[in-house]
Each structure stands twice: as C-alpha cells, then as structure tokens.
Write a structure and sequence with these properties.
Helix content: 10-25%
CATH topology of the largest domain: Molybdenum Cofactor Biosythetic Enzyme, Chain A
Bound molecules: adenosine monophosphate, magnesium ion
Oligomer: single chain
Low-confidence stretches: 1-6
Mean pLDDT: 94
Distance between the termini: 52 Å
Number of strands: 26
Structural class: alpha/beta
CATH class of the largest domain: Alpha Beta
CATH superfamily of the largest domain: MoaB/Mog-like domain
Number of domains: 4
Largest sheet: 6 strands, mixed
Radius of gyration: 31 Å
Strand content: 25-35%
Amino acid sequence: MREISMNAAHKPPLLPLDAALGQLLVAVISLNETQALPTMEADGRVLAQDVVSTLQVPAHDNSSMDGYAMRSADVQSPGALLQVAQRIPAGSVGTPLLPGTAARIFTGAPVPPGADAIVMQEDCSVEGLAQDQVRVQAVPPVGQWIRRAGEDVTHGAVVLARGLRLGPAHLGLAASIGMATLNVVRRPRVALFSTGDELVMPGTCAPQDMPPGAIYNSNRFFLNALLRRLGADVTDLGIVPDQRDATITALREAAATHDVILTSGGVSVGEEDHIKPAVQALGQLDLWQIAIKPGKPFAHGRIGAAHFIGLPGNPVSSFVTFLLLVRPFLLRLQGQTDVAIKTVAARADFTWARADKRREFLRVRRNEAGGLDLFPNQSSGVLTSAVWGDGLLDNPSGRTIAPGDTVQFVSFAEILS
Ligand code: AMP
Ligand code: MG
C-alpha cells in the first residue's frame, strides 16, 4: 500500500524552478516605450529595433599588413624584383597597379586595382639607387593579407537584432556602420523596499549600540545594486515598518508610478507579516513555494498595472532568487529575447553527501586546477558564501556529488551584469 505522510498530504507540492520562471515570464508584457540614445551611452540597454547596415565593412579590399601590394603573377619565384610605383598609407587611395610594379602599402589602406596579393615588409628588401625597387623573397598566393570588402558586414545585413542586450562589442559594431544613436527600450521603473522591524540601516546605529535582535539591512544594498546593473531606474523606499496601514500606503503609492515593486522579507508561509494582506487588499497575489535551495518562498502579484515581486528575507535566498527569477523577469520586461541562464559543465573537486529534495544552487569557486571548490557553509543566511564564491553550482534534486563528478556551473560574472 502506498503511504502518504500527514505532512505530504497537507503541504502543496513545491513548484519546479522552470515552471515558476515560465509562469513569471508569461506574465510579462515588454515595455513598449523606446528612446533614442547616443551609441556611446547605450551599454547594458536592450535594442528596440533591428540595426541594419547601409554599407559594407570593410568598404574596400584593404591590406592587413604593412608591406607591398602586387600582382602575384609578377612573382614566379622568390627573389623577383618589382618597381615601387606608388605609396598608399591608410586613409588614401592608390591608382591602378601596372604590371611589373608594386605599391608600398600600409595596414588598412585600400588595395589598388590590379593588385591581388600583399607581401609583408619583413619578406621584402628595398633595392635600387633611388631605393625604388623591392625584392620579393616569397611567392605570394593570390589574396594573401587582403581583407575582403564586406567580410565583416554586408550591405543590408541585420548586424544587431531587436531584443538584444547591448555590450561593449555591440556598441563598437554599431559605430562601425555609422550608427550615432540607437533605439533602446526605456528603463523599467522599480520601487524597492525591505520589510522587517528587526532591520537597521548602517549609519543609523553603530555596531556596538545595536539593540538585541536587530540586524543591519543587507538585502537593500545588493538588491539596489543588482537592479541598477540590469538597467532599472530604482526608487529605494527603504524599510517599511511591519504595520498593515503603512504597508498598504507604501505599496499603493509605489504602484502608481512604477512598473515593478520589489520587496524582500515577509513571504515565508505562516508568517505574521503584512505584505501578503496588503498586496491582496490592493490587487492580487500568488505565493509560490519553489523547489530550490536557497530560496523557496517567492511571491508574484499585481497592483494596478504594476508587478509585485516578493523575495525571501534570508540574504542568500534573496540574492539567488533574484538572479534566477527577477533577473530574467527584468530583462524580458525590457524586451530581451534570450533570458535563459547558460550553465557550463565543470568538475567538482569536493564531496556533497546530503542529497536534497530541492534543486540546489551551491556557492562554489573555480580553483587553479580547473575544478570547483565548495564554500563550507551553505546556510541561506551566510552572505560570505556569495562573496567567497564566484558562481553557482546547479545541482539537481536528489543528487549527491563526489570528487570528479561533472556538474553544471554558472559564474557570477555572467549573471551579475
Ligand atoms: P523573513 O523572510 O522576513 O522571514 O526573513 C527571513 C530572515 O531574513 C530573517 O532572519 C530576517 O531577519 C532576515 N532578513 C529579512 N530581511 C532582511 C534584510 N533586508 N537584510 C538582512 N536580513 C534580512
Ligand atoms: Mg520578516
């Protein structure tokens, strides 16, 4: 007979992370307001429009070496002597190359008509009384050291697609086709606040004067920084007292002028908190129990047109749930198409003997031997683990880890930007 424990019968099943992320993303309608930004200022923003090239790059066949442009047929064997008939620095244009002649040419300069190969200067020697002849020591294959017109970008090509998040290389490529401005999605307006009467802001009370039970508000600092890195325009509303009326007022005001309200703390099940009734009084709220560790409690709701997102209070849970759920949510809100986190295979150099029912995101660090080391304390309150670690190991539920095992890893460098 199948046994069902009392506990299992009463607790709702935990939601798999992928299902939670799927539900969250389905609820997102991307912002449709765009703005034209100088290309120089568009780093980190999401493109609202395809960028199409109206020219080819390079515009002309050009030399990739300092050397001599020639007709390869003129050099049948090493040691051929050619008359240097012209000089073409980068930025100027040569004349058609006559048979038996060569052109002194520099990197980036257009290859003159008639020339079909470049020989680098190291393979040539200058000769003749007027130093106007070049002896070519190696027979050049056709096309040697020539960058072909259009080999980087062809005319009419979509060089950057709408929905792409711009980084330094994208800005350079846009500039290379003459784009001085780019159309990007406007920044999402995010209101951030922390809940919890135990929270104290650094600077308002010295460490030696902290009352018993009080802790510093650490979540506010990393959540603020994470939001900014993701392009959000953040209104930091500080700590909202654990009182129903104050919470309702803060939420109502924030919802009127923001796209998203993000809170931390007070979403654990059965907790005496005011977030849940306050959001429910103003709009609608779903409380999820997600099958991840750290993490688990997570809330998503609506107050008017604004999204409400409630993160758990434990600092590492808050940090990790932000990266796994809020980050893709915010990127999608800005119209980014590909928001999936890409993990890579890595080797574990440690033992993890306790299999958990939930999918775990362990704080690990890459070592010089090319493997991963584990931070010894994986408690959801120990923020040191996220500083010591340089990424997360994505461990499926029910899995133990032995040294040498192949595991999935994502670096903070990839998901913190
Ligand atoms: P809660 O989710 O409100 O039950 O909080 C869980 C744990 O996280 C408690 O130990 C809280 O004191 C702690 N916590 C909640 N919010 C913060 C915060 N902003 N900074 C640091 N710790 C917090
Ligand atoms: Mg609390």
